[in-house]
Give the backbone structure.
Amino acid sequence: MTVTVNQTEATAPTGSTRVLAAGQASPEAAELNSGSCGLILHRQGQLNYGFGREGRAFSRDLVGYLNDKQGGTITTFFYDEVFGVRDRVHWLVHLKAPNDYSRLLDMVDDDEEFRDISLVDRLPEKGHGNWERMFVEGSMTERVLVPQHGLRYHHEGHGAEAEAGNYVPAARNQSAQDFDVQLNSANVGAIVFRSADVAYRYREEGRLFAFDWQESVNTEFAGQVTSLLFEQNFGRQDRIHWLIHLRDLQDYRLLQEFDESEHARQTVFGKQRIHESKGGGGWDDLFLPATINDIVMVPRQ
C-alpha cells in the first residue's frame, strides 16, 4: 500500500536540553538512524552490578570509535534500559544492507585501535580485565530488525538519494509525518521497544493492525511520538517490533492515554480484524498470549 502525503503541520523538535543519541556521532553519521536505515542490529547485554560505570565507559569508547570510522555507513547508538532490568544496556547498530556488517568484522581482525578498546586493562583495581568481566556470561544477544515492507507512504522529493542501497525501504516511509517532524533513534529522548509474536494464520492481519495502531498514534502525537514497525529477520518467525520514539520519557503517558481512549476503541481496538471466512475476531486474537512486551530505553551521552 502506497499513499502520497503532504507535509504535516507539526513542528520539528528543537531547542531541547534532552540527552540525545545523536551526541554519540557526527551530524553526518547520525543521518543513518532507525528512520533511514535498511536494517538494525539490536544488541543487548547485562552488566554485572559491580562494573556498571566501567561497562558504560567501555561502550561509550567503542561506540565513539565505531562512529568515527564507520559512521554514515554503520552508525551505532548506545542506550540504558529503564523501568526494566537494572544495568541492562542496548546498542542499535544501523546499517544500509547486511553486507555492510563485514566492515565491522574487518575492524575486529585488522584495526589495532579497535582491538585495544576491547583488550586494554579497564579494571586495574578490580582484578584486571575488560568487557568480558563486565558483562554477565551469556547475556550478550543480537537480533536483526528489518523495516516492515508493504506498508508505506510516498513522500514527494524526500529521501530517495539517502536511501539508495538500502536493504528494504526505510521505516520512515511508513508514516505520514514529514521527515523533518519524525523522531528517530538519533534525536529521541526515549524509545519504547515493543515486541509481539503474531499468530502464523493471521500474519497479514496482525501487521495491518500494528500499522493502524502506529499511524493513529503518529497522527495524534506528531512531534512527540513517532512509531515505526520492524519485523525480525534471521530469528523467530513472525515476531514484530515497534520502535516507539518519544520526544521525552514522560510522553509514555500519551500511549497509555491513547490506548484507553474512546477514540482508540472505535478506530483501532474495536474494529473486526479477522474476516468471517477465518472465523472472525478482534485484535486480541492476532497475537500469541502474553507476547506483547515493552522495553523502555534512554540514550547515554
Q: What stands out?
A: The domain at 2-6+149-299 is CATH 3.30.70.100 (Alpha-Beta Plaits). The chain is about 25% helix and 25% strand.
